[in-house]
Amino acid sequence: MNEQRRQILQMLPEGRISAEEAERLIDALDREGPDSPPHAPSAPPLRPTYLRVVVISVDGIDAEEPTRVDVRVPLRLLRAGVRLTALVPPQALTKVNAELRRSGVPIDLTELRPEHIEELIEQLDGLTVDVDDPDTKVRIYCE
Fold this sequence. Notes:
Blueprint: H1 3-11, H2 19-32, E1 50-57, E2 67-74, H3 75-84, H4 90-102, H5 114-123, E3 136-142
Antiparallel strand pairs: 1-2, 1-3
């Protein structure tokens, strides 16, 4: 088994790629074949599968042990959620939008499209979060 296949199969149990993504990558390796030049262009970067938020804070009940929050949200959930808004009746969307505005969330679900989520995911690479506490670290990224 070549090194590239081994790397793909290793990423699968780690949750870094889905079974479908692994299958596509292996198929791409098979198409390249053994006669491919050694410096052939690499495959496009994998689509991120998780939105990750990590918070580490040293304040709290036990200041010697930092409080750690680590949240992984599957991006498939976000993508599916955007697609599901198309199934919500317009009357319900109007009520949901009004409730969101009342709660201070200025999002219009009737304007939300799948490409908006993809653009958001692409922009997360450059995301910076400022925290007013010097003893707290926050990281938000896609993996």
